[in-house]
Amino acid sequence: MQQDETGSEPLGGYGEWGGPPGGYGQPPRRRRRGRFIVYALVAVLAAGLGAGAGVGLNSGGRNSSPGISSGNVPGPRGNAPGGGSSALSQQSVAAKIEPGVVDINAAIQYSGGASSEGTGMVINTAGLVLTNNHVINGARLIRATLVTTGKTYTARVVGYDAAQDVALLQLQGASRLKAVTVGNSSQVTLGTPVLAIGNAGGRGGPPAVTSGIINSLDRTINPTDESTGATETLHGMLQTSAEIVSGDSGGPLANAAGQVIGMDTANASVSQGSSAVLGYAIPINRALSIARQITAGQGSPTIQVGVPGFLGVLVPQSTSANPRQQAQQQRQRGGGSSGSAGGQGARGQGCVSSDTETPAPSAIAPVSTGALVDGVLCGTAAATAGLASGDVITTVNGQAITTPGSLTMTMSKFRPGTQVRIGWVNTSGQQKAGTMTLGAAPAR
Length: 444
Description:
Radius of gyration: 22 Å
Shape: elongated
Number of strands: 26
Distance between the termini: 11 Å
Largest sheet: 6 strands, antiparallel, barrel
Number of helices: 6
């Protein structure tokens, strides 16, 4: 899974990242001492999932999941005696934690068979699982396997916070599972011994474990997509000498008492060519706080509750109301559009898939305002209705659409299964309209 910023705002999200840390309070400095931060994710046959606010993302309204409440999410607990001691038994800690660990496989929508492999933590006996958002970014099908029993469940996305890289899943049909014991990340101090546990290399089976200490607190890091240079910022991270590697994303970082104090997220080589690695983990208090907001149905500008509705069009990254200007800005950014479908289709090519990449549309509907359609994703409501590259969307349920951003904002309130009436103009100047039933968006 990779972020693509070549000009379109598709539906999708982030994946493998790399880049410099945030300079420990200083501006980011690329290649400082050779340090290069990457998300601890294994991506298989990744084919360019797009970034940006795609059409149909981020419903901020209240929409709690049936049968789930904030009471299902544990709160931070005081770290047990001995949790901060200098002695840590890998075998003892792993035995306490591993029954609540799952391997995660996420098949990525519109990606030509791409998948990602990561880790998750069971936080209640009914199968709520915490993981990193980048592990399930753009996923159409998520499976989670208990590492101690090998039993596999289909996982439903309860919600996520893309900005803080936290996602909450529900294992379908799960009951009487063993949950990890959580500690209190606000009580963690420098020198605390820790054990990182995860699906190293995406191999599955018994998890890998590695020990170290907390060697820094409250770090700001800037993970950057290795192929595009697009960056994200994560604040307040725990830094550890425990080696967190690809596949560990979403896994537990535990103290000597077997309590989870953080969620494995990223790693960085200490210097160019060095085998020494720093690990970064999201404090467990923050991850649990986000999970409680999700289960309470408290959406926000960053927290998505459930999965939003999905129209299935790619639109330019542009604030202009003029579709031709939108196309021009797109070309200036990269000469083409590439997103969760891997590209944008020209008229006559129909819907697009992950392995196509074509220039911005040359034929554009003759209207002065609206949201330019760069491409239409196969199998979506927009494809069924006959929308195509070069068309311009002008209304949604009778409400005027003036820019790509206004289309995104208008669509953000709709849920999967909602019927919306879309008005558009095609490249021949014909006025078109159709009622479309929105699908479920890939997790972002």
